[in-house]
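User: Predict the complex.
Assistant: Input components as received:
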Amino acid sequence: MVETLKDIGEFGLIARIDALLKREGVQAPGVSLGIGDDTASFRARPGHEILVTCDCVVEGRHFLSRHISPVNLGRRSMMLNISDIGAMGGQPLYALISLGLKNETPVQDIENLYRGFLVELNPFGASIIGGNLTKSGNGIFIDITLIGEVEEGRAVRRSGARPGDVILVTGYPGQSAAGLALLLESLASEDQALVKAYNNPSHRAREGRAVALTGCATAMIDTSDGFVGDLGHICEESRVGALLNQEKFPLSDDLRKAAQKLKKEPWQFFLGDSDDYQLIITCRPEHVERVRSAIAATYEGPVTQVGELTTAEQGVRVVLADGSERALSAKGWDHFR
Amino acid sequence: MVETLKDIGEFGLIARIDALLKREGVQAPGVSLGIGDDTASFRARPGHEILVTCDCVVEGRHFLSRHISPVNLGRRSMMLNISDIGAMGGQPLYALISLGLKNETPVQDIENLYRGFLVELNPFGASIIGGNLTKSGNGIFIDITLIGEVEEGRAVRRSGARPGDVILVTGYPGQSAAGLALLLESLASEDQALVKAYNNPSHRAREGRAVALTGCATAMIDTSDGFVGDLGHICEESRVGALLNQEKFPLSDDLRKAAQKLKKEPWQFFLGDSDDYQLIITCRPEHVERVRSAIAATYEGPVTQVGELTTAEQGVRVVLADGSERALSAKGWDHFR
């Protein structure tokens, strides 16, 4: 008999989670009250701003239970939020977990979901300080609020970029989308590098923080809406345009091969929707090397200069290999279209 | 043609919400970054602790769309969270709204939902600083994270109660449950007082804050899990028992009449699950008058002494009108049983 939520009830589950967190989690600094009261509470560190973000994953929409293990689902859900804190230059500290669950959900799956959260939180010394449990009619959802801190005045916004700034990107955006496409066409197995990129995305939060501490980035964002979508957010908030150089796009050999199999241009994967959680960073040309070396301290992947910012009137354009220019629509991932 | 979410898309909706909040909302102090970046950010006030809570309402579980207007749904969802901040003695400041929506949701309904949030937030000078929008397969959900502050050391926990403390309760817990029962049996109309208590619950957050500032409360909680359920939380966290006096229970004439119609004992409504969001406060007997007068500054309803705390071994018991004692199970509202 598999023990389910119905067997132990809400308060039974809270007690089990509380015990698991005490056993396997860490205690973030500054917490004055954790799970088990009307609210949690903490003391902010002087000289710091508080960052707060929330992101939700929904069964059937962002994941299928039969295709992802509870531990990986927990990791993925938490990773999305850590990526957002890192893209501001912050340090994750406290998480609140709001779950919509079904009566028949096995208790062990929920415990493993929390283990997934901890795999991501523990290395930062961050902890789960509260949350909510509720019954969801259909499909579970995992809504996480993540709170972090950043030294006052050091947060890197989307709005500080200026014409003439260069556009840098970490890693290989598009790998995850190509991995998903291979999976959907049954063209690759689980251990293929691109499929791994899709199944186990990782964040660049440490690198985002290191970049912020250099003081050199004029804007920064994570690529959760795809490269063009997120570059578009910077352009909109900073009121600038962008000129990209297609020949500079970081495309791995794996991606080139996959694109061939899938009969697509590899750079389309780079530009479009993809769950990669890399960073787009803009900075003055003379600061590129400082940004690069800040990232290189913890990340071995490439940091590529893919273009530069222009005035807003010029929109977002790409120079193709043959020298021709094409305008890009700055549409990123839109949940309702 | 009703404009739906599908017509304007995620980013269209974010722009509309942002405009509505700027037009109809207030700007909470300390916000350094609101909607439109990877995270929101704020500066904590020196000498204060940050409080954080989250609560979620799910269609079909906590509400039925055809029985509640979007404005009232927004009010109710926000009220739950404000109640939790108030039950710690805090002041609400910043909300993050995570919505699961359907493609066919009318845009106007969502705008009215936000208007409902603002009806509750504006009087506190609190504002919405971020959130998340996602598509939900079936049924919408509204998950709110509310952040507040309280002067350092002033938060009133569940864990500070001691044997010999008196148990006070505000208002008439049970009214909402009786209103719901009348609705389900088609025994009352919308304008009946108990039905109103169910349809438009209100919080005692101002009173909770006033009580906290007296420094006299040893424990405090809102009655979101029903009177016995929430008294049980205090007993568990404070490791005490309780002896209640049935004859002291605050029961309105409306409730007595409704109970007669429903063929139930009126005090069963008082003790059981009910969406009333009143406060249970424990304090030393010599502090009762200070607590009462703090509450009376903003609340005209009763503050009733319904019993006192005992040692944990004695459990939670009630003395009935005939002098006999009965043990109560401290089961509150459990979402999965």
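Chain A touches chain B through 74 residues (CB under 8 Å).
Let me know if you want any component modeled separately.
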